[in-house]
Fold each of these.
Amino acid sequence: MKRRNFLRKAAGVSALVAAPDMLAAHPGARVIHLEPHPEPPVKYGANDKLRLACIGMGIIGHYDTRSALSAGGAELVAVCDLYDGRLAQAKEKFGKGLFTTRDYREVLARPDVDAVIVATPDHWHARISQDAMLAGKHVYCEKPMVHQLAEGHEVIGTQQKTGKVLQVGSQRVSSLAFQKAKELYQQGAIGQLNAVVATMGRHSSLGAWQYSIPSDASPQTLDFDRFLGNAPKVPFDATRFFRWRNYRDYGTGIPGDLFVHLISGVHFVTGALGPSRIFSAGGLTYWKDGRDVPDVVVSVMDYPQTAQHPAFQMLLQVNFADGSGGGESTRIIGSEGVIELGWNDFVLKRSPLPKAPGFGGYDSLFTFTQVQQDAFKQQYNAKYTEADRQATKPEDVVFKAPPGYDERTDHFKNFYAGIRQGQSVVQNATFGLRAAGPCLASNESVFKQKLINWDAEKMQMS
Ligand SMILES: NC(=O)c1ccc[n+]([C@@H]2O[C@H](COP(=O)([O-])OP(=O)(O)OC[C@H]3O[C@@H](n4cnc5c(N)ncnc54)[C@H](O)[C@@H]3O)[C@@H](O)[C@H]2O)c1
């Protein structure tokens, strides 16, 4: 298990999740290896590469930049961050010639930048993404797209006004596994969808967002005031800067950090636009380190019937003090089967019901008189053929992307196709808000202790 975890870390996914390995969990299943998309025949030369800048070179800025470069046809020309150590480290990694700055506006002013990755804390996403599009840059914005609902409509408006490409960074929707799951779902592989159950348990301080803080953090080595942006002014606090997820002023709690991935995946697979009612509850149970967000959150989201899917309910639960050791499971459940999603794999289990309902065992039959029991059996045998009584149990099938596969690279390829060929991207601003909105509503539900009505079409709380 340790080795498997290490391999996933190497593939750049598992620092973020403890996704189950579907093959290990279903050893008897048939395995279908998913083929990577064929590489496009075009090779880009030095003069027609996309020139990228990364704004926010923290943990995910590195993951994103690596995948952005391995997607091909792009080069990194600039990096912006507020902590000098990260700018120095970017030069160590990408070369002394790299342009670095604490001020993202200097990046946007550069004519040699075509597109930016926005990998800052959540409260900066909307502002930087909009400024970037207004400066003529395409944007890959990390999830959740926004920190406040109103910002989401502004981002959509700016994208439409400028015509720039905006891709939101819940990269799992570009995974080979999710594309195959969507195809199977649309073919009716699980029958009629009725529930989604997604749980994520973590059991470590890093999992609970207590990331390392460098010993040289000071008002001189990092720009704390700029980090605060429009958030309330507070004195210098390295913990707030490096562990911003723990504070509502900068982050979006468990829903914005984690539910958003689950919701994005489910919307992609099912074509859902969003729930109509959201009720969430949460508490700070264990990690009482000054944070003002819960470490356990449960949410029920009620999805109404649409042309794309029947009505279903989604249950989401994240627990940062999960003494079972943690783990993750996302199950899309229908009347005839289930798709259990991993990160770049999933298992399809099918159990169609036999036509005949059966009798006996834990049933009312034995409470009937003998005469009634005999009459019942006679009637039953006349009504159902032998075939009607057989429950078919198709074998479980695990669908698996190749080892080392990086869905984030495919997400960047999709972004680049939007820029170069004008293709529509898989996670545009509207998709981004339809995933982020229910997460923000979920926080609202936790903190105001009430049910939230959500208009998924208009993307508004009502
Ligand atoms: N897609 C994914 O799988 C995934 C995973 C983790 C995080 N994320 C998202 O990525 C974003 C960053 O998360 P992280 O874990 O890398 O955080 P992080 O704290 O490691 O990095 C954020 C960086 O942004 C910099 N920064 C802050 N404000 C800035 C500003 N105004 N201008 C320039 N730089 C600024 C900070 O100095 C820091 O280095 C978050 O929105 C998070 O939700 C996405």
Amino acid sequence: MRLRVWFRVLEPADLTDLDWSGGPEHLRVVAEAIGAAYAGEVVLRVGHLENGRLVALGGVDFRPDPESGLLWMLSVDERFQSLGIGTRLVHQLERAILRHGRTVARLTVELDNPRAASLYRRLGYRQEGPALDWWPVAGGRTYVAACTRWAHDLRMPSP
Ligand SMILES: CC(C)(COP(=O)(O)OP(=O)(O)OC[C@H]1O[C@@H](n2cnc3c(N)ncnc32)[C@H](O)[C@@H]1OP(=O)(O)O)[C@@H](O)C(=O)NCCC(=O)NCCS
């Protein structure tokens, strides 16, 4: 099944339609990232259906590393997964990295997320080594996850 999805810049008004992507703590991180996007440090994209319904969210953070863009917060509404939307989202964000003048895309994947890892492997990403990632969760706590860091040289043709 080929579903038509369009991608555009995330706008503040979109926050109320992104509850499928995570809880209030996650949405607070997204809201803070909008400020960084205005400063050119971050790119945020959403994918939407013809009726405007949001089905995909993802970003690139240019702050952690001067040579690459870090793919971030990748998420497709679970009712619309396995239709190729995640693949197109990654390609959109990779193009944003190239437009920013960088040639490497990086991301971290939790060790217990083999499905995401197989997607990135298929898209040309290769493992660089272990990494830790963390994000806020309910109750003011921070969730720390054991991850693998992956990288893709965007000058190489995609498989
Ligand atoms: C990871 C994630 C973003 C991928 O999004 P997605 O839209 O499902 O990705 P795609 O559809 O492009 O690819 C996923 C699968 O669909 C298959 N697929 C791709 N295009 C397809 C199509 N046209 N028809 C049917 N299947 C297709 C792919 O082969 C892939 O199979 P696999 O899971 O066995 O590797 C999504 O699963 C998600 O949001 N997961 C929860 C949050 C998460 O884990 N985020 C990543 C953190 S690193």
